[in-house]
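Protein: PSer/pThr/pTyr-binding forkhead associated (FHA) protein
Species: Paenibacillus hunanensis
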Amino acid sequence: MNMPDIIKIIVDTAGLEGHGAFIYLENQKPILVGRHTGTGQTDLPLYNQLVSKQHCRLSRVHNDVYVEDLGSKNGTELNGQRLHPNQSYRIGDGDQLTLVNGLVTLHLERGSDLEETREYRVSDLMENEIRLHDYLQNIQIGSDSITLSKKEYQLFKLLYNCLDHFVTREQIVREVWPERCMDDAELVGVDEVNSLIYRTNKKLGDHFTIRSVYKKGVYMKKQDDSEEVSTGAPS
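Structure follows.
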């Protein structure tokens, strides 16, 4: 009897190909794909404001994979054709599944060697163990200890949870300055966000780099000494 395939869905976000999240598809266990909201209600959260909160659903029946658009605002496309909402479509090997006019691509990858797949996943982890201490607002990276201010730590946690994915300025303001999101509160200015990013970036040293991409947002990645650090905020 043949062993069932291991099926993995890999996310590629425009500008960050190869750095996306992934999730395994289990038989008869649907996967909800949607915009990251911090509530944990989606199985595969995407960090793109054009993605709907409940965008589409992926399901596996034996070795077949199906996709169903859930009435998303900006659509789900299979091989360039926009799907009709609430209808199930089979995804064949080599098919291209994209969201919001191609800004997000979901790749289907199959394998039969469980150990090989586990090894591949482990290889994506950081070389040095990362420990976050919320009470102390401290990050332990291997033998290095980095202590941040309250706002710096909140920014780091947001970007670390979204590692290699874009975060908008609006998301940063909501997560780091929730007390300033009330109707009668003083607005958080661009310079204030820029300053926080700069200070946090400087303290992270050789471990992480926070980068800004025009009209896309801010993201954090492992530090590459050959690249210049950008500390600006998104426009």
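Remarks: The radius of gyration is 19 Å.
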